[in-house]
Design goal:
Radius of gyration of chain B: 15 Å
Helix content of chain B: 25-40%
Structural class of chain A: alpha+beta
Largest sheet of chain B: 6 strands, mixed
Radius of gyration of chain A: 15 Å
Largest sheet of chain A: 6 strands, mixed
Strand order of the largest sheet of chain A: 2-1-8-7-4-3
Oligomer: heterodimer
Number of domains of chain B: 1
Order of helices and strands of chain A: HHEEHEEEEEEH
Number of domains of chain A: 1
CATH topology of chain A: Nuclear Transport Factor 2, Chain: A
Shape of chain B: globular
């Protein structure tokens, strides 16, 4: 397996672990001070850095999507050097009963088989409506 | 074999021409039936297909950003096969006087030196606040 194929394999595994809300397995995919950076900030966290914070975030998904998990499906992967861009969509049911069908474009950075950062681009208005009933943070 | 560097150059040119509001320049970069697909849903049309429709969309930009244009700066470019993924951010001023600093992750598909589809992932909540004072499309 080439470096690019290995990184793609890791990116798919990341999505699988996210779907399973496997906090320990997921956190172990990152370097020690690795981070999830949501580039479309809503009322949720913008940067989640470090193994313990990542573990807590992912375990929390079980409560948010008790019926389905986050259920993200990969659509396309584009890889070069230490990066993999992944387009994907979710088909989940939020704890409120609302459908959560978001569309994502992740950009992963890898180093020596570990995720250093995962940047997430998603439909923030959908997140806001499903998770927070449309309530927003004060605008700067 | 795909011309990765050529496609990257075209992807950068595409964003430069959007920044200039160059209606014909942008439209001519697409195949006849090419499309701009905004994957983060707002009151903007989610899909604009065909050169004439693209011309109409880009023609709106100078009115929306009279002072600065939609200045988009490229942060990272990742290419494979017929695809280029671009992480970028805007640094513009909307006609209302509000700053417009969005974050983007494009996935652009090329064929024979032309854009087939450009998929845009952006902060829809932020766009909605700046462009539409928070007004949203009807929820499904």
């Amino acid at each position: 397996m080439t470096g690019l194929e290995a990184n793609k394999h890791l990116a798919r595994k990341y999505i699988q672990m996210l779907n399973a809300a496997d906090g320990d397995g997921f956190a172990d995919m990152f370097v020690e001070d690795g981070a999830i950076i949501v580039q479309s900030p809503t009322m949720g966290l913008h940067v989640t850095r470090g193994g313990e914070a990542i573990r807590k975030l992912v375990k929390h998904l079980r409560k948010i999507f008790p019926e389905t998990g986050l259920r993200i499906t990969v659509d396309e992967m584009t890889a070069e050097e230490n990066r993999v861009a992944v387009t994907a969509h979710s088909d989940a049911v939020h704890v409120s009963g609302k459908a959560y069908s978001n569309r994502y474009h992740f950009l992963f950075y890898f180093k020596d088989g570990k995720v250093t950062e995962c940047h997430e681009y998603l439909d923030s208005m959908l997140v806001n409506n499903v998770f927070f009933d449309g309530a927003q943070r004060p605008q700067s | 074999m795909a011309d990765l560097e050529g496609n990257k150059r075209l992807a950068r040119k595409y964003l430069e021409l959007i920044g200039k509001g160059d209606v014909d320049g942008v439209a001519n970069m697409f195949v006849e039936n090419g499309a701009i697909i905004v994957q983060s849903h707002t009151l903007l049309p989610p899909e604009v297909r065909g050169r004439e429709a693209i011309r109409g969309l880009i023609g709106m930009l100078p009115g929306l950003f009279p002072e600065t244009g939609l200045r988009i700066l490229v942060d990272e470019v990742t290419a494979e096969d017929n695809r280029v993924s671009i992480v970028a951010h805007s640094d513009a001023v909307h006609a209302s006087g509000k700053k417009y600093k969005n974050r983007y992750h494009f996935l652009i598909y090329f064929k024979d030196g032309k854009i087939v589809e450009s998929h845009e992932y952006l902060d829809s909540l932020y766009l909605t606040n700046v462009f539409f004072d928070g007004a949203q499309p009807p929820q499904a």
